[in-house]
Amino acid sequence: MNDMTCKFRLLHTMIRVRNLVKSLDFYTRLLGMKLLRRREFEDGKFTLAFVGYRDGGTHRVLELTHNWKQEEPYRMGDSLGHLAIAVPNASVVCEALRKEGALVPRAAGPMKG
Predict the structure, then answer these.
(1) Closest CA relative to residue 37, chosen from 13, 63, 16
(2) Is the distance from CB of 49 to CB of 24 less than 8 angstroms?
(3) In degrees rounded to 5, what are phi and psi of residue 80?
């Protein structure tokens, strides 16, 4: 895996937020980040908002995921969703991880919704 991992890079960290308006205010107004992009997913009933100090093409950003029907606050540990890592070929990496005994909960490919 070492030869393969030299081309990996961290893209973003996803956290779930219950109140997107308050979260965007916190990260943009109080921490000085910029709202880089926002997208609504009607079928999946969620919104993604990416914030950061610079564009995510070359810098790491935060992905704020707002699940529209989430009424209760997230408990400690429930809000972290994932770390996104760019790799040359996700299918090859997933297969190599499986061979090493790692759990790969979802096949490589686009998300649903």
Answers:
(1) 63
(2) yes
(3) -70, 125
